[in-house]
Write a structure and sequence with these properties.
Elements: H1 4-17, E1 26-31, E2 34-41, H2 44-56, E3 62-65, E4 68-69, H3 79-91, E5 101-105, E6 108-112, E7 114-115, H4 118-129, E8 136-139, E9 142-143, H5 153-163, E10 172-177, E11 180-187, H6 190-201, E12 208-211, E13 214-215, H7 219-225
Parallel strand pairs: 2-3, 2-4, 6-8, 7-9, 11-12, 11-13
Antiparallel strand pairs: 1-2, 5-6, 10-11
Helix pairs in contact: 1-2
């Protein structure tokens, strides 16, 4: 198991390694595997990238993102200009329906509307995060899934786990309650936890995933000993 000092060094190295991040104004604090990111970046997209980079590091149990977005002079845009840019970007996406709308208040974007899959909800947020002038995003898009045979959802998710090279199959249990999926068990890393949640969200008819899996550095050793 890594010490907090080693984990801190690894997170700094991962931030430095990612070409989309200028880590010079980011500070990393670690306590018992919990990583806290502080400092500031000039774009919201960079804030998102920094959190993802920290989550990729082996040994990280959770990430708290306290990074502030301080727009540079060149990065400032009027709210109406941001809204128009976002509207165009969403309109030109093959995945985002017309029901999804965006409002902007001092650079903060609020997304509303309804989609039938979680990946579309995430896709809309990802599109918005890369628009110049955005300071933050509130994703209030609702999910109204297509009809599905819910009795097959559990088996479908479990098969997807077994196919996935990023997930240690057999360590995660799947519970399905109508349109809600609850995941239990242990995973080797935060990245694996996120991947398990993504896979569960991909099942047709799912409108809520509660990912209660826990990151444990000995999860992989336990799985190999079984």
């Amino acid at each position: 198991m890594k010490s907090d000092e080693q984990l801190q060094r690894d997170v700094y190295e991962e931030l430095s390694w990612d070409p989309t991040i200028n880590e010079s104004n980011i500070r990393v604090f670690v306590k018992d595997g919990l990583v806290v990111l502080q400092g500031h970046v000039p774009h919201y997209a960079e804030k998102v990238a920094a959190k993802k980079a920290a989550m990729r590091v082996k040994g990280v149990l959770a990430v708290v993102d306290d990074i502030e977005v301080k727009l540079s002079f060149a990065g400032h845009r009027k709210d109406e200009d941001i809204r128009k840019a976002i509207s165009n970007a969403l309109t030109w996406s093959v995945w985002i329906p017309e029901s999804v709308k965006a409002t902007v208040d001092r650079g903060w974007v609020t997304l509303t509307g309804e989609v039938d899959w979680e990946f579309k909800r995430k896709k809309a947020e990802n599109i918005v995060s890369h628009v110049i002038g955005v300071r933050g995003v509130s994703n209030l898009i609702g999910i109204k899934p297509r009809n599905s045979r819910r009795d097959e959802t559990k088996q479908a998710i479990e098969r997807a786990f077994r196919r996935n090279g990023r997930i240690t199959a057999g360590r995660i249990t799947v519970e399905v309650l109508n349109e809600k999926v609850v995941l239990h068990g242990k995973v080797n890393s935060w990245a694996e936890r996120v991947e398990a949640g993504r896979v569960a969200w991909s099942a047709q008819g799912v409108c809520l995933v509660e990912n209660e899996t826990q990151v444990s550095n000995d999860a992989g050793n336990s799985a190999r000993s079984e």
